[in-house]
Amino acid sequence: MNPVNYLYLSALLFTIGATGVLIRRNAIVVFMCIELMLNACNLAFVVFSRMHGNLDGQIIAFFTMVVAAAEVVVGLAIIVSLFRTRHSASVDDASLMKL
Amino acid sequence: MSFPLLTATAVLPAVGAVATAAVPASRRTAAKWLALLVTLATLALAIVVLVRFDPDGARYQLTESHAWIKAFGVRYELGVDGIAVALIALTALLMPFIVLAGWHDADPLETGSRRWRPTQGFFALILAVEAMVIISFEATDVFLFYIFFEAMLIPMYFLIGGFGDRAHEHGEEVASTQRSYAAVKFLLYNLVGGLIMLAAVIGLYVVAGNFSLQEIAQARANGSLDMATNTERWLFLGFFFAFAVKAPLWPLHTWLPNAMGEATAPVAVLITAVVDKVGTFAMLRFCLQLFPEASKWATPAILVLALISIVYGALLAVGQRDIKRLVAYASISHFGFIIMGIFAMTTQGQSGATLYMVNHGISTAALMLVAGFLISRRGSRLIADYGGVQKVAPVLAGTFLIGGLATLSLPGLAPFVSEFLVLVGTFTRYPAIGIIATFGIVLAALYTLVLYQRTMTGPVKPEVSAMPDLRVRELVVVAPLVILLIFLGVYPKPVTDIVNPAVKQTMSDVHKTDPKPSVEAAK
Amino acid sequence: MENLIALLIAAPLLGAAVLLVGGRRLDAVGHWIGTLLSTTSFVFGVILFADLLGKDAEHRTLTQHLWTWISVGSFQADVTFRLDQLSMTFVLLITGVGSLIHLYSVGYMEHDERRRRFFGYLNLFLAAMLLLVLADNYLLLYVGWEGVGLASYLLIGFWQHKPSAATAAKKAFIVNRVGDMGLSIAIMLMFTTFGSFAFGPVFSHVGDTSEGKLTAIGLMLLLAACGKSAQVPLQSWLGDAMEGPTPVSALIHAATMVTAGVYLIVRSSAIFNAAPDAQLAVTVVGAVTLLFGAIVGCAKDDIKKALAGSTMSQIGYMVLAAGLGPIGYVFAIMHLVTHGFFKAGLFLGAGSVMHGMNDEVDMRRYGGLRKYMPITFITFGLGYLAIIGFPGLSGFFSKDKIIEAAFAKGGTEGWILGGAALLGAAITAFYMTRVMLMTFFGEKRWQPDENGNEPHPHESPKVMTIPMVVLAFGSVFAGGLFSFGDRFLDWLEPVTGHSEGDSPLSAGTVTGATMVCLLIGVGLAYAQYGRKPVPAVAPRGSLLTRAARRDLLQDDFNHVVLVRGGEHLTRSLVYVDHTLVDGVVNGTAATFGGLSGRLRKLQNGFARSYAVSMFGGAALLVAATLLMRAV
């Protein structure tokens, strides 16, 4: 199978994720969409690795996973504390830092 | 290796600043005494420098040189010539008076267990300024100079913005708004100047390959370092702009009245008598030595600006309603004289300008500090709020008058000598400019005497009728300044002896000789 | 003997320092310390005078070098004193009249709580004035020049609680500064021309330079003299200066300081002799002022202001004489000395009258005082006779010579100047007779003041009358003493030089004409003020009278053009500084502030809009990269 098809899939996933980030208000969904984008990138890295025949892409994919895991931890914590104080998970409600 | 005297002179107040800042909140008085002691010790060191300095010796003496940032050829190089020695002595001399005069300026308004320590901060900042000013006078590395020239702004910013006159006419809130306006204005003006200078400093490095004033000046003098005419001019303008902001020269002057008006009197003295002198000093040391040809090229324009400063500053002083702003505009006029003297390119002009820096420091300190004592008694800076003070506080009025007479350059007091030298030095080369500048002496009489008349004479206003005369602490501040004014007025030789050889060197840097009197020239 | 010269100055300077720094504990004895030190200086002066008399005429110049004052490059100013016949004359006049006036002030200022300070200022004045006449170079002279200005400022404004006194003091200082500007430019010109401003080198090199330069120097010196000596156009301060205590008017604004301009011109005779145009300017200024002052003196009802007008006019005579060159120098100084006696005497007399009249100065409120104050009347009367040039008295000798010398100038100039001087003599006789008649003759016209205190005219205490008597002696005999055997001429000639002009009129004719003028003046004054009662309220008067009362509108001119104009100028400059110069700066700041205010709106606080801009940015970058690739 042509590896380029995987790249199309990756781009599709990335676009879905990005659209989700832009249009959804629920912080959890936005958060999951970000994960989707990250994974789309991972897929692209792995494909590139396969296409070029070296391991660089795979290694970067691992790095990305680690970063994503860390991000999940911090991000969920923020979302939970946000929900606790404001009783809402909408990202539009959190605009206190605006001048 | 000998004892690093110059470093010590600058480090002592720096260490003192840290120590003063560290004094516990409850020991305010201890902090004041510590600051006073440090300034006195610095004065002692400055006197040692003065004594060790040999006017007829090498150009730069007591030199220290250490590698610092090797990658850029930046060195920690110190050295003093006669001009620098005179100004270091002036700075060290004025500081104890500034500290003493500001003794109560930073007392917390209400006594309580406030966490922050305004008093400690005030005196620590003053000492920090002293350290930086002194090292600016000593630095012979352009980069080193630049760093402290700029760093000075930080403590000055806090001194202007953080401390003001007590019991201001419009209440504390308005006052603090005006203060922060003045402080920001001061900072922005000087930062802009400094940034342009930074560009020129980098440009100089690109052209010359190092930052050493002595090396570059020497290479310029013996022709081994050639600069394209335009390059030199641009670099000169970059340096000059920063110094002209600091000095300040018309039309870059408007920060000074705000800063001096809003700051407490001792800080105002610090600005005009000490910090601003770095600007005029640097014109002599850096502009003329590094860029002799460009300096000569720019001379006509600078002289005209200086002339405008003289007349304009004096006229504006006449129109002021605020005592401190009046003194500020008078200072602008005086800085015009100093810059005119420097760029007249005659021995009399430059020696006179250096002497002028010293004398102006002393005379403005006398006038401004007494004005500060006056203001602290009545709680207003407006001239119209006073009247008849002479009757209730004759000593205060008398010292105020002497300070005023020094400001108008009365013969017999120190500023006359320098002002006349500047005028003569300018006149020998540029008669028309010299004559117009002479109008300044009439205007100086006008603003000083109008100020004196409106505040000190006439019927006693009810608000000032209970005004106490000078206290002992205040007298200790004013009396030595008055004595110095008289002494240097009748016997300026100690200063001119130190300054003259350095000026001779500078004159030869720019390849200029004094014009001959026409009787001799005819022979 | 040279070493005594510095002591001449040191004594009063010490007095000033002690009295001003000493504080209240010296209040009880301060006036005697002041008088003692002034007299000490006089004694030194007499000793030096005796020493000079014992020497040949050529060796009568003593110099004393104290220290090098300023030394920068070729600019050398020394503190060196020079005592020659000219400065000796001044030293004796200053310390002599000065000591008498110190003595007088002990009585005059008796009830003033700040008497100690007054004596301190008087001593300061003496020191500065002595420095002025003893200096060996122009820069040191300048120190004395401004020093006397300072003392004059302090003394005019001595009663500073009166706004009018404070204003008058300020005005005097500032107008004088305009003159000082002339002196400093003259010194700068000397330095660029001769490379020096010490008397010796300058005078000896006068021949080596162009007349144009010398004329410029001369005109600048004249400007200086105009300021200090209240000559037109810088005369406006002198009338106001009468706000000061009367002894000050007598010492500073009649006998000594105001004559410094004449000293300056005579001292610079070498320069003026070589610059005829400058000399002409001097004579014109002198002639104009002598008429100006005389006319103003006729119209004033304030006794001190009338005398001030007279002082101006008499100094006009001296300046005129000094401008005539070698034919006039000696007579200028001679008139200066005799004037010092009689004018000081007149002022002291006026002070004595005021002392007895509750400080009333309006002559229309005097009248018939001769019965109440006989000594004052007699001494004042002798001074009066001296100033109008009554034959045999001091003024007769000195003024007559000046009028003669003016005619001797020759040509049309001679006739005009001589005519002016003659006319001046007539007006002098008129206004002085007016003063005399209004004050001492006629009906008594005094009235109670606002507080209802009726004045009780009485003679002044001895401490005041003795100086008046001494000065009256001087007024009577000094002229004759100087003139017989040409003593004064022989004494001064080595310094100033002298030549006899060829007058178109004989000496007798001039004297005769002067006498006729005198009689006309006295007669007119008698007709108007002696035979008719003097109205207690000034009549409206003719246009000229009204103008003269206002100093011939000079003050109005100054007020409108200089004061008002200056106020408008400074006010508009303050405005310009605030709006334009500062406005540019604040405008720049405001532009950036406004811009960032707009940009701030983009930060709307919605995380998703930030995300959009991020994606948009990323997309742009990608697109740009692709585009670059494609190209």
Automatic annotation (TrEMBL), chain A:
Membrane topology: Multi-pass membrane protein
Species annotation: Streptomyces cellostaticus
Record's catalysed reaction(s): a quinone + NADH + 5 H(+)(in) = a quinol + NAD(+) + 4 H(+)(out)
Enzyme Commission numbers on file: 7.1.1.-
Listed Pfam families: Oxidored_q2
Keywords of this entry: Cell membrane, Membrane, NAD, Oxidoreductase, Quinone, Translocase, Transmembrane, Transmembrane helix, Transport, Ubiquinone
Record carries keyword Chloroplast: no
Keyword flag Signal: no
Gene3D superfamilies per UniProt: 1.10.287.3510
Origin superkingdom: Bacteria
Protein name: NADH-quinone oxidoreductase subunit K
Subcellular location as annotated: Cell membrane; Membrane
Segments passing through the bilayer: 6-23, 28-48, 60-83
Record GO cellular component, one term: plasma membrane
Phylogenetic placement of the source organism: Bacteria, Bacillati, Actinomycetota, Actinomycetes, Kitasatosporales
Biological role: NDH-1 shuttles electrons from NADH, via FMN and iron-sulfur (Fe-S) centers, to quinones in the respiratory chain. The immediate electron acceptor for the enzyme in this species is believed to be a menaquinone. Couples the redox reaction to proton translocation (for every two electrons transferred, four hydrogen ions are translocated across the cytoplasmic membrane), and thus conserves the redox energy in a proton gradient.
GO molecular function, one term: quinone binding
Self-association and partners: NDH-1 is composed of 14 different subunits. Subunits NuoA, H, J, K, L, M, N constitute the membrane sector of the complex.
Protein family: Belongs to the complex I subunit 4L family.
One GO-annotated biological process of the protein: ATP synthesis coupled electron transport
